Amino acid sequence: METLQAVRGMNDILPDQVGWWQRVERTAREVLENFGYREIRTPVVEKLDLFSRGIGENTDVVEKEMYAFEDRSGDWIALRPEVTASIARSYIQHKLYADPTLQKFYAIGPMFRHERPQKGRYRQFHQIDAEVFGIDSPMIDAEIMHMLRIFLEKVGISGVTLHINTLGCPECRKVYREVLKRYLTDKGDEFCPDCMRRRETNPLRVFDCKVERCQAFLDGAPALIEYICNDCRTHFDAVMEMLDKLGTPYVVDPKIVRGLDYYMRTTFEVVTDRLGSQNAVGGGGRYNGLVQDLGGPEVPGIGFAIGMERLIMLLQQEQQAAVQAPDAFIAAVGEHARTGAFLLLQQMRAHGLEVEMEFESRSLKSQMRRADKLGPRFVFILGEDEINRGEIQLRDMQEKTQQVLPLDTAALTLSQMIGKNSPEPVCSEPGQCGCAAQGGSGTVSQE
RNA sequence: GUGGGUGUAGCUCAACUGGUUAGAGCACUGGGUUGUGGCCCCAGAGGUUGGCGGUUCGAGCCCGCUCACUCACCCCA
Length: 447
Description:
Strand content: 15-25%
Structural class: alpha+beta
CATH superfamily of the largest domain: Bira Bifunctional Protein, Domain 2
Number of domains: 2
CATH topology of the largest domain: BirA Bifunctional Protein, domain 2
Low-confidence stretches: 422-447
Mean pLDDT: 87
CATH class of the largest domain: Alpha Beta
Shape: elongated
CATH architecture of the largest domain: 2-Layer Sandwich
């Protein structure tokens, strides 16, 4: 195939899909800012070091899954695989820890990983990310999960579950890790080859093995919750207590282990059973060591990221796409009338109206057909007779009625009928005002 | 990186065991009304069957390679 094509795993988001993205982004900004988060925009490219230090040099992530390049000056750079490290870097670089008004950040944008694409998993993907620095209280752990839930509700997602867990702190996890490793080793060859390897490299990962046989042997495994220190226990209990008080439902799930070392204490994921193998829509956790690891002061942190592709796939399963129809269409018959229509079109746009017309010389019938396809409520018809008399026909496509109007006030008349009279769209609540421009039905299927 | 599945019109799909000009629905264009949409009717346009090679009298169909898409594994930020 000779035709030009996007790079593997990188997708175009076509106009008929973009409405979903805009809606999700709009809702995210609304909710996050309501909770006091402020947007931060960091570069899509960072020095490779940032991620290898932040994530760990010898992980698969850094070794083979990162989109890394040597640039022309010989520096190793990488397309960001996540944005937490970038935000932490920026936070340190600009000494934002000295500004008590800036502790909560959010970022929305593309991330990259060099992996074989699969459902809900692409080489360029998009995340909504939130991070809090400098707050160690379990209240913020609970609040951030609560906020995540509010966001999902507002955007219209149903059928997802919040899973939470605690990983303990580096000290108590170290103890547990050894206990678990011993347990797994004692079981000998009973586990799948992957798990036999995992028990050496990252024993906690065995917990989310998909092989049923492995899961069966895990029933009797020691639980981390029994080994964590008092401080971690107290923290986790407080998080759950606050979630209860906030009325945000959750299930404690020891399988939420996260892959990276810098996570500690609270971890969480929002999961669904409707996306095939990639079942996490979003997730996050506490990472008290990260800022310090990157050369900053000892500042605790917690955050989460939402995968936008997956979120939108879920939305599409339950909701109708919003269709965007223009406010009106102008059909013109004859050369002279077409020029008049063109001027009227621009006049209408100056009123903030979205109007289309046919530029080619086509039969009125074909113009009416096209108008019908585009779906506006109103169609103006301008022929030689009308333009000579200074008039125009206005057809209401729904009511199938037609009237004659003065041409010079046609734009004003339309804007009054539509209820738009400024370039700013009046309608900020899709579906609430009956405005045809934003057709989000807002319906959520009950299941 | 590994394994499975799939590639036919813009889209969704046909084409009996290999057999002549590769079809249909939707979409598109024009017409049925010298100026009026949806429904209906008529006509038209649109394909190197992903690509290259092989087997064969003959390949959309069989074989090899390749590319792309897709699902899953590893990993998961």
